[in-house]
Design a protein that fits this description.
mainly beta; four-stranded antiparallel beta sheet; 41% strand; globular; binds FE2/S2 (inorganic) cluster
């Protein structure tokens, strides 16, 4: 899968620009890092979701996990999480993953990151 290039993320405010909307087509995703945290921005059928790139089962990355019905599956052991809420939808994970609100303004996709992450 080809990923778009993230914008430079050096802004310390809570609203962080990530990428232009036209660079993240439906079905694509963007992995990015900010303040030593990894996250994934996904475009699922034209809706944007941002989740932490860290499975709560054993710390595996979710970046390459399959997404189906708004659930992402961890490639390591198959745990699933709802990308809208972060809730676990399939074991072996039991704890939710962080999700971050997404805002679109003037064609730019922003995330509302907690301060500090
Ligand atoms: S690390 Fe994700 S299911 Fe085990």
């Amino acid at each position: 899968m080809e990923y778009p290039t993230p914008m430079q993320c050096v802004n310390m405010s809570k609203r962080i620009p990530v990428v232009r909307e036209d660079a993240l087509l439906p079905g694509s995703r963007l992995h990015f890092e900010l303040d030593e945290e990894s996250a994934i921005l996904l475009n699922v059928d034209g809706k944007y979701y941002c989740i932490a790139d860290l499975c709560t089962h054993d710390g595996g990355p979710l970046e390459d996990g399959d997404v189906l019905d708004c659930q992402i599956e961890c490639p390591r052991h198959g745990a699933r999480f709802d990308i809208r809420t972060g809730k676990v939808t399939r074991l072996p994970a039991t704890d939710p993953i962080p999700v971050y609100p997404v805002v679109i303004e003037d064609g730019i996709i922003y995330i509302e990151a907690p301060d500090p992450w």
